[in-house]
Amino acid sequence: MKLAERLAAARGEALPPTPPTAAGAAPSTETPVGPDLLPETESATVTAAGFPSGADDARTLNSLLLSTPLQEGPAEPAPRVQAGKFDALAGLKHRVKQELLDRIGSRQSDSSLTDVQLKDFATKELTRIVAEEQVPMSSEERIRLIRSVSDDVLGYGPLQELLDDESVTEIMVNGPDQIFVEQKGKVTLSEATFATEQDLRHVIEKIVTQVGRRIDESSPLVDARLPDGSRVNAVIPPLAVKGSSLTIRKFAKDPLTVEDLIRFGSVSPQMADLLRACVEAHLNILVAGGTGTGKTTMLNVMSSFIPHGERIVTIEDAVELQLQQEHVVQLESRPANIEGRGEITIRDLLKNSLRMRPDRIVVGECRGGEALDMLQAMNTGHDGSLSTIHANSPRDTISRLETLVMMAGMDLPQRAIREQIASAIHVVVQLSRLRDGTRRVTHITEIQGMEGETVTLQDAFLFDWDAGVDPRTGRFRGTTRSTGVRPRFVDKFEDYGIKLHPSVFDPGRH
């Protein structure tokens, strides 16, 4: 059967009658491009690996090619062809994908092969398979086909392109046909989609199994991470009513530094100097803020101030911190197995860390009874500890801590809890995400002690909300300035030989 006949058969169409050729004329060898195939677009250079050189990101990939999940075992039957512009390309993608899986075979489970070696092999085989199909395609269609199949087999399907895009900081999937992304602080609807709920579920299962977790109807929500450290949360039906939900918070391959935060305007040089001195002087610091305000990023930056040589124990639900020091032990909690056994909580890890001779304890986030264990550790000689908490202001942070301590199940008087907080925590660093999409440190607040039944606070730095908004750019004009008050904890700096220039607390500098 001729190629044109094969394509027509795949679309369920009848071929038009072939016009007779003139006597003695050689039959035409030109391949017709019908309305069912994309017209030739701007040419792209194809490398030996089959990918474009300098080609633009193919954001419309999933509107061109149907996405099918990676299957193990016997090949599934080809999808039923529907009338439409890209039916032939959908069938072609299915055939190419199945052929690639056959050629890869057991190599996917071969531990002796690195990811780079496997990807190199798959890319070369994929290029050969596409060439063997001999289907008329433009160079752009060929590139998109290779990229799409490679993403499905070796990556995370339509999410792979978004994960590769460094400008995307967060990916939010609300069912198979709705994917939102955050870029430069703004959330927009992406053109990428999954073809079916099954495809989305396959990607979710692929992610969670990589970190030894499971997701099913008996355990329909899970926290996980990608190999690059990006944070993942997944929820599937019946909890997610309109289809599976997947949220991926990406982290930069190269961790942000304090210089980056200064350049972004998140902190001023004076604030950075103060925070560095606080960490080096072994003050206990709590980073507070709402969802998406940059708490983990700030915790990571502040952890970089810890001197090399100190033993650091980090405790997290899913490992996210990217500490650059050499002497670091990373601990990760574990959910219960299918029988309800084997759970290791943050509290368990925190208690165990006290037996590990830590110089510093860094808790990724306090959101339960572990807050009591953390306060007790801070009050029993483990100074210099760091953690984060969900709260909208320094005063809210105190109230939130009280609530979390009571979740430990200990029947403690409210005053005793507040005294624990006042003696354990020295500094609260408050972050906010402003309406213009920027993230700012809006407070650096000292916890000074107790007055009667109240924990007393004193702001050292405070965001200037009265500066208003620039009408041309829509950005806040305000900056976080010193209040002019010298915190009491500065006296501790001398014990560690830290000298902070008095101008740091000059309200005129920012």
UniProtKB/TrEMBL annotation:
It comes from the Bacteria. It comes from Kocuria flava. Residues 6-32 have a biased composition (Low complexity). It holds the Pfam family T2SSE. Transmembrane segments: none annotated. This is Pilus assembly protein CpaF. InterPro entries: P-loop_NTPase, T2SS/T4SS_dom, T4SS_GSP_E_ATPase. Residues 156-434 form the Bacterial type II secretion system protein E domain. Belongs to the GSP E family.
